[in-house]
Amino acid sequence: MGGVSKSAGFRVIGRLVGMPVATWIGVALLALVGAGLAACATGADRGEDSGAASGVSAVEASAGAARGAELYATHCASCHGASGEGQANWRTQNADGSYPAPPHDRTGHTWHHSDALLLELIRDGGGRYESATFKSRMPAFGDRLNEADRLAVLAFLKTLWGPDERRQQAEVSPPRR
Questions:
Q1: Distance (Å, whole) CA 98 – CA 90
Q2: 23/72 same-domain check
Q3: Rounded to whole angstroms, what are the CA distances from 152 to 25, 94, 142, 159?
Q4: Each residue's pLDDT tens digit in the chain (177 positions)?
Q5: What is the DSSP string of 81-109?
Q6: Same structural domain, 23 and 108
């Protein structure tokens, strides 16, 4: 009886036994509706990301995130930190026009960008966004990480965000087909 003692459960049943059939039916319907709502509650209702917003099942997202964690540790952590914390003073431009590597956790800005842009940055690096006043130090990983690997890294990055950041990021990321 999920958190209700047996004696309390028996007291409720004892009270119901003397009730009219219509009351029994009403109580039974309420119980069924409550159980149905509890069973239908999603991770998003609890502030979790099931992956559905990005078109990925929860199982795929968790498997991808585990693989992504391994790839992140190998290819990304040396700049962005083992926990996605980024480098110190990441908002302060260096003398060469570049910036320190930003955090990928909820304190950074990664979650402001769509899946498509993040996957492009992982694949192609940041050189495309360079200008006279901005230099990117983000290397391209397209020659080292295939599409499945890049998706896994992205799945891992999303585990570093809170529910609000995942929800906001999902809003700027149309579902992949």
A1: 10
A2: no
A3: 49, 31, 14, 11
A4: 444 444 444 343 444 445 454 443 433 333 333 333 333 333 333 344 444 444 455 655 677 899 999 999 999 999 999 999 999 999 999 999 999 999 999 999 999 999 999 999 999 999 999 999 999 999 999 999 999 999 999 999 999 999 999 999 999 998 876
A5: -TTS---TTTTSPPTTS--PPPP-STTSS
A6: no
Taking a C-beta distance cutoff of 8 angstroms, is the pair 103, 81 a contact? yes
Q: Is residue 16, in this structure, part of any structural domain at all?
A: yes
Is residue 135 within 8 Å of residue 95, measured between CB atoms? no
Tokens of 105: 């956790």
The β-bridge partners of 131 are 134
Size of the chain, expressed as the number of residues it contains: 177
Q: Are residues 68 and 27 in the same domain?
A: no
Is 0.70 topped by the overall pTM?
no
Which residue range(s) make up the domain with 108? 56-171
Rounded CA-CA distance 152/165 in Å is 18
